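Lab channel / #folding
Pinned by the channel admin:
"Please post every new chain as: sequence first, then the structure tokens as a reply. Keep commentary short and put observations after the output so the thread stays searchable."

First post following the new format, from NK:
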Amino acid sequence: MIYPAEKVLNEYQKVLDGYTGLLTCRLLNLCVKSHPIALIPVIVELWGEDKTIEEVADVGIPDEDHITVFPKNPEFMFAIGKGVLEVHPEFQMEEKNMEINGNDVHYLSFKMPEVDKNRRDVLNSGVDAFYEEAKGQFETTRVKYSEMLMDKLKDDKTGKDSDDYKNRFDDYFKSNSNVAEQTVNDKKKEIEEAYQRYLQKKDAATQAVQEQQAAEGEDVKSQFKMPTE
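Reply from TO:
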């Protein structure tokens, strides 16, 4: 038998877990590294019907910078590309082909964008907005279910320990809040690391150009050097 207060606690935990999962999914869709969850929101329209990406293609993650999509029917290629770019216009799409079991297979490759300063700012703003929304959802849920729990405990005639219910209620809130905070911190760390990789790559390219220009300058000077007797 599930007591009324226990039922409230179970429902409360389920709602909090749902909001925590939603936050995680949203942060994964602020793409820095490739992840199949990024394609969950994609809707592919085929002959007037909306399809999920799983219904029309197989998704692969060859590395942290790319997502590959293999249409189950070559005729789906254009609609899939259109659907993905509507959700993630920042992706760089390329149609490719490879040989599989002697067959020439065409597929789509989506590259994650580099994280320059502007994208870093946009991503961090998105993280902050989603986090604030999640915290608001947590607090609204806490207030709502706290009142429900108190009502059930007030009418409870089973002799169950009310403090135990209250402690578990608080633990559920703290647990989900901690998970949400850690998820946000991990995402911001991921964004910052990607930005630092971008800066290192940019500095290396600049240095290579400068070295090339210096070498060309030395060649020019050597061509005009006066011969010594």
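NK: The longest strand covers residues 92-100.
TO: also worth noting, The chain is about 60% helix and 15% strand.
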